[in-house]
Amino acid sequence: MIDMKKNLLILFIGFYSLLNAQSIVGEWETFDDVTGDKLSIVEIYKNNDKYFGKIIHLFEDPLDSVCDKCEDDNYNKPIIGLLIIKNLVEDDDEFNDGTILDPNNGKSYKCYVELESNNKLKLRGYIGFSILGRTQYWQRKT
Fold it and tell me: Which of 7, 24, 30, 103 is at a distance of 20 to 30 A from 16, taking alpha carbons?
């Protein structure tokens, strides 16, 4: 009886670890598309059944940078704390139906996110169809 309880506990812990390991929730390092330099850390979190991401650290820009190219309510808001990913919905292996804001040009795009491995996130921002867009890869902060 003790061995059966022990095996169930081990199975439960393993299953929980597997589910937790495949989450996009956490801190992610972003990189410049051209130079490969680290740009920021984005914290992705879940609120109700949707996922959001905000910039929590900048590597190269001054810490008091603002989104001066944003044309909506984000105009002149500090980059640190800026909500750049909004309303992603989990759909099997992907997260869809959200938007991503590019603070460099102030524009928002449709986006989807896919966890390529536990430590590598694929993000695709696009206009209209996903073929018309740009892909970035983020690394989980360790």
Answer: 30
